[in-house]
Design a protein that fits this description.
The complex is a heterodimer. Chain A is α+β, with helices and mostly antiparallel strands. Chain A is built from 10 helices and 20 strands. Chain A has helices at 12-23, 66-78, 95-109, 155-160, 188-200, 241-265, 297-302, 363-369, 372-388, 392-396, and strands at residues 2-8, 28-31, 48-49, 83-85, 88-92, 112-114, 118-125, 128-135, 138-149, 164-165, 176-182, 212-215, 221-227, 273-276, 288-289, 309-313, 317-319, 327-329, 337-340, 352-354. In chain A, strands 1, 2, 6, 7, 8, 9 and 20 form a 7-stranded mixed sheet that branches. A 4-stranded antiparallel sheet of chain A has the order 12-13-11-14. A 3-stranded antiparallel sheet of chain A has the order 3-5-4. In chain A, helix 1 runs parallel beside helix 3, helix 1 (12-23) packs parallel to helix 9 and helix 5 packs across helix 6. Chain A is globular, with a radius of gyration of 21 Å. The two termini of chain A are 22 Å apart. The model of chain A has no long low-confidence stretch (mean pLDDT 95). Chain B is mainly α. The termini of chain B are close together. Classes of the chains: A alpha+beta, B mainly alpha. Chain A binds chain B through residues 85-87, 188-197, 200, 209-210, 212, 324-330, and chain B through 18-19, 21, 34-44, 46-47, 50, 56-64, 67.
Chain lengths: 397, 83
């Protein structure tokens, strides 16, 4: 199989990169380990788009192009507009709608999608990249002129030994565990009070503190969200399948215990049940690339702009180094910061571009740029960069 | 028995524990929810109020009328210490 642009990962960033490159006429192959696109916004049930809007009185979309298009399509699908949460605007999104929008975008733009597959090996030669891909039928090669790594975990960097950075286990942002509930009753502060009371009385595990529910916009449905410690046994390591297994089990155990407790004690919860587990827990931070430029948290807080910026970062530093709730650090005067082009370009590799939560940045900046609204924007930019990197004869036509 | 906290004590607690990122001079009647406090932060608040002041805030207290401003919160903590 050959293509001009190979995109690894069909999360927010990979979807944006693949659709952008395909619309410009490139032959694009998109690899994804799940059976649908959307990543955190679908497989992990993260149900708000953060980072779509500028901070301020009005909800104004920060990045034109793909992020604005997603905003419009999601509003059309759910009928819900932006909501102010504290000082920032978010757009409620529904994972099922996200899957449908992604299917339509990929089909309309002519992307060749390969679900249920993973990249295993990658080698560069004079003409581009040879990537070996594993599916259940076996291992097969794909030739590509340029690759976009939107894997979230800097998978391509690991496969070809390129420079990466990973925050120490104790400071990694803790993972979220989000599940679907049908038939919940009282919510918000009332449920918060109940849960603290349940923990105090020893009926709920301490890790249930922080569990909260948000209506999905569909009849009877809400999403419960917990932050996990990730350190159920040993250090938190989002790249270790054993650690991830403990994480998934811990999330399900806390969620099931809490819903059972609320059925007994909370108003209107008598017939509630867990209706959906996520495909995977919501990892916020793991391994990232080291690129030509490294975006810092200080630059985001100062609202620093760059001449070669490819998108705006508009989400505050949302630190979740513990599972006791977020610590938000807001930029000075609510200014947006620029993400320079060099954060999407590896330090020493040609024809590779990075998008999404594993772009080149420090731990603090990652706490801002990881959100889906920003991933749409870095994905679109990586798709454009990959187009420019195609072989000269292809671009000359 | 511990004494009821002042509004300043409550604002200091909210800041130090990272429950709400309050600007300097945040008023006693300022809206904590508009300042970014959500139901998740409220859980932390209930735990911290018990640790710091020994006030047990029950599920029936968890409403905007009791938690909405630093002044409301100081009053609630005072009542839960007295009871």
């Amino acid at each position: 199989m050959t293509c001009e642009v190979l995109v690894l990962g069909a999360g927010s960033a990979g979807l944006a990169a693949a659709v952008t490159a395909a619309r410009a006429g490139a032959r694009v192959v998109l690899l994804e380990r799940h059976g649908f696109a959307g990543g955190m916004g679908t497989a992990s049930l993260v149900h708000t788009f953060c980072g779509l809007y500028l901070m301020g009185e009005e909800a104004v979309v920060a990045n034109p192009g793909f992020p604005a298009e997603m905003e419009e399509r999601m509003r059309g699908a759910t009928g819900a507009g932006p909501v102010k949460m504290g000082r920032v605007w978010v757009l409620p999104q529904h994972p099922v709608e996200f899957v449908g929008i992604a299917d339509a975008l990929l089909e309309e733009s002519g992307v060749t999608v390969l679900y249920h597959s993973e990249a295993l090996r990658a080698e560069q030669d004079a003409d581009g990249w040879q990537v070996e891909v594993a599916g259940r039928g076996g291992i097969f090669p794909i030739r590509a002129e340029a690759v976009v790594d939107a894997s979230g975990d800097a998978v391509l960097a690991a496969l070809c030994g390129a420079a990466t950075a990973t925050t120490a286990a104790a400071r990694l942002q803790r993972p979220a565990y989000i599940f679907g509930v049908q038939g919940g009753g009282e919510s918000g502060l009332a449920v918060a009070g109940r849960i603290v009371d349940g923990v105090r009385r020893g009926l709920l595990p301490k890790d249930a503190l922080g569990l909260h529910f948000r209506a999905s916009g569909r009849a009877g449905e809400s999403f419960g969200t917990i932050d996990l410690t990730g350190a159920e046994e040993g250090d938190y390591d989002p790249l270790d399948p054993g650690c991830l297994a403990r994480l998934e089990v811990a999330g399900r155990r806390i969620a099931a215990t809490a819903v059972e407790f609320l059925r007994r004690e909370a108003e209107g919860w008598g017939a509630a049940y867990v209706s959906q587990w996520p495909v995977r827990a919501g990892v916020r931070e793991s391994r990232r690339w080291v690129g030509k430029q490294v975006l810092t948290g200080a630059e985001i807080l100062n609202g620093t702009r760059h001449v070669d910026e490819i998108a705006l970062a508009t989400w505050p530093l949302e630190l979740r180094e513990t599972n006791r709730g977020p610590k938000l650090k807001y930029p000075e005067n609510d200014r947006a910061a620029g993400i320079p082009r060099g954060c999407l370009i590896p330090r020493a590799l040609e024809r590779v571009f990075v998008a999404g939560r594993c772009i080149s940045c420090d731990h603090e900046a990652q706490a801002s740029i990881r959100v889906m609204g920003t991933c749409f924007a870095t994905g679109e930019a990586a798709g454009r960069l990959a187009l420019e990197a195609r072989k000269p004869q292809a671009t000359a036509l | 028995m511990r004494s009821a906290p002042s509004v300043e004590d409550v604002v200091a607690m909210l800041r130090e524990e990272g429950i709400a990122d309050l600007p300097a001079g945040f008023p006693a009647e300022g809206d904590l929810f508009a300042a970014g406090m959500d139901s998740m932060a409220v859980m932390q608040l209930i735990v911290v109020a018990e640790e710091r002041f020994g006030a047990v805030i029950g599920p029936e207290d968890a409403g905007r009328e009791n938690l909405g401003t630093p002044a409301d919160l100081a009053a609630l903590i005072g009542r839960r210490l007295a009871s």
